[in-house]
């Protein structure tokens, strides 16, 4: 990634452009966007899920979706989903433990 692109990406991040949008615009992974922003000295953004989205995350997880699947469906990260599930009294399944209610 060129220095000019890195600066443009950092400026977009600083102004609040969503990470997913920046990743698509610059053809990089979301982790790269966060890394470039951190290298530019920008504070990491952690946007908490709204109460409704937390409820949705907990429900989807309890229905059998994985943390990753719920995160993808809601457009957020696995950590946010994990926090939502725990906050709503749910238990996180052990890794590799996967089920589907039918």
From TrEMBL:
It comes from the Bacteria. Residues 2-36 form the Transposase IS30-like HTH domain. It holds the Pfam family HTH_38. InterPro entries: IS30-like_HTH (IPR025246). This is Helix-turn-helix domain-containing protein. It comes from Nesterenkonia sedimenti.
């Amino acid at each position: 990634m060129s220095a000019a692109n890195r600066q443009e990406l950092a400026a977009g991040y600083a102004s609040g452009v969503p990470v997913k949008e920046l990743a698509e615009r610059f053809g990089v992974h979301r982790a790269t966007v966060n890394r470039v922003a951190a290298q530019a000295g920008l504070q990491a953004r952690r946007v908490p899920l709204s109460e409704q989205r937390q409820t949705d995350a907990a429900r989807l997880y309890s229905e059998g979706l994985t943390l990753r699947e719920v995160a993808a469906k809601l457009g957020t990260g696995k950590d946010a989903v994990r926090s939502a599930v725990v906050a709503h009294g749910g238990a996180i399944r052990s890794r590799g433990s996967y089920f589907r209610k039918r």
